[in-house]
Structures are given as structure tokens and as C-alpha cells.
Here is the input.
Amino acid sequence: MPDPRGEFARIAALLQRLPRGERVVVGPGDDAAVLRPRPGRDLVATTDTFVEGRHFLRELVTPSEAGRRLAAANLSDLAAMAAEPCWALVSLAVPATWSAAACETLEHACASALAAEGAAVVGGNLSAMPADVGRLVATVTLLGEVEAERAWTRGGGRAGDVLAVSGVPGSAAAALALALWGAPPSWSRVPDELRRTFLAPACRVRLARALAAAGGVHAAIDLSDGLAGDLAHLCEASGVGARLDAARLPISEPLRAAARALSAHAGQERGLLPAGEGALLTHLQLAPGDDYELLLAVDPAAWARSAAEAEQAGAPLTAIGELTAAPGLLLRESGGAERPLPAGGWDHFPTGN
Ligand SMILES: [Mg+2]
Here is the structure.
């Protein structure tokens, strides 16, 4: 067990460097924090855990980058509910392989990223792992507020809704695939623009708040299981199907170049990635990858206004298809042919074309 005086001193020192949150009745230092939501608001809560070796590799991700990504994962969940981040709890279970300085760097980066979006760390916990556990486990619990009864959910989508995404889904997966391509894993093969999408994902809280204020979004989900998987979640919750248009999926030059580079790399090393540049690009765009972008179902009558709001918020949306009354997910290929995306998710998708 860690020396409790050391633990409290570390938490106190960290929290002193951070801005104190609003509507914090009792802040850090007591047994629990006391927080006061605004009248007329619903409280929105989420939590995410990063396990070293599973959610990040220490060879590729610095403590500071791990902290930022942990914050991003939680902020993204609140954005998907149209909520405003307010308060956070940060908990670390620390193995002997991590120095106190590395833990503080992670915590500080996480807290700073949360603070940049309006959330204050109001408490936390540090505990030592048993000697035989060599991996860090970091958890953030994030609380936010949304106007009462106005939270977005996955379940409000309707047939005819415009499906839209922010950013360029697939970029984070492409960055990671390129970094893991050789031995040892390295970012040196990854263009800066792609690397940033993985290490410092854009936060879509402001976009979500602007769109929510304008109205017209029927359903939302953030992309953490990949476009195909998360679309399946949204469709299931909404009781609808969807048609995606492959030609309209957003693409960037670095993503196209990554697909080209990965497809040129034949052999076992490619693992589960499909053969062929086009198939590989579609795979990157649809398969699991931590983009932390938003997938939205927008009332067609509100689409032009939503797109303009997103433009103004500096996070343009791309229309990529529509929700359908018929269940199931379809992908319309560039040639016009349609093929089903299995409801079970992209992982089971045949990649032989
Ligand atoms: Mg989510």
C-alpha cells in the first residue's frame, strides 16, 4: 500500500494547480465532493478506463498523451449526449513500473484537457498495484449537464434522417496501423496529421452544444467502435436501418496515402486488413478505431442549418447516407451496387473483395 500521506500530498499538489470548478459546494480534500447542478438541467454521467497495454502502449504513447486521450474518451461520450462537461473524478491504479512524476504528468494532462472543455477535477484516487501487476489502470468519471429532457440519445433516429459525421473517421485507425506496421512500433512512419488524430483527438463538445442549441439532431453516438459498429448501435436503438454511401465517406490525403502504404505491405504482417487499396480504405473508414468523432441522425429539414452551424463551429459535418425504415445496414459502393453490412459489426464483414 502506498504511504497515504504521500498519496494525499500528491493529489493536493495536483489539484492546487488546477482551476476550481463552478458550483462545487465541497471540493477536493473531503471524503467526497458536493456538486450543485443548475436548476432545469439533467445530470449526465460517463466513465472510461484505460488499461496500459490494451488501450495504449507505452512505447507509442507518452503519459501526457495517455492522459489527453483518456480525457478525450470521456468528453466524447458527453458530446454524444449534447451535454456540457462540469466535473470529473480521476482514479489511477499505479504499478511499480510507473514513477510518481509520470503519474502526475498523466493526471495533469488529463485534467488540463478536461478543464479546456469546462470540467474541473473535484476528486480522485491513487492506489498502488500489487507487485505482480505491471500495468497502469486509469479511470475518469465525468459528470456534465444538459437542459432537462434535451439530451441526445442513440434512440431518436427516424427513417429519412440524414446521417452525418464529423472529422475523417478511420484516421486514428490508420495512424495506429502504420505505427504498428514494423518493429519496433514507431510514429516515424506516420504523417503528423494522422498521428495527431490518434494522440490528440479533436473534442466535439462545442460542436454538439452548438448543434443542440440549433435543434434538428434526432440521435447521436460517438465513434469509439468504428463507423459500422456504432451505426449499428444507433440503428438498433432507433429501430431503423441505414444506407451508407461509400463515395461520400470523408477522406483526407494522409488517410488515402496510409491506405496505399498499408495495401503495398503484403503478407502476414498485415494481419486482418483486407487486400487492395480501395477495400483497405473502406475498412479503415468503417472498422473499429478510436476517432471520437460524432455520428448524427439529423432531421432532413434541419440539415442545411446543422451543416452551417458545424461549419461555423469549425468542425464541418459530412452527410454520408440516410436512415431507412427497412432494418439492416447497406453500403452503396461507388459503382452503385449495394451490399449489406452485417448488424453484428464490421469485424465479421467478409473482406475478400
Ligand atoms: Mg460513446
Summary: Residues 279 and 353 are 7 Å apart (CA to CA). The longest helix spans residues 63-79.
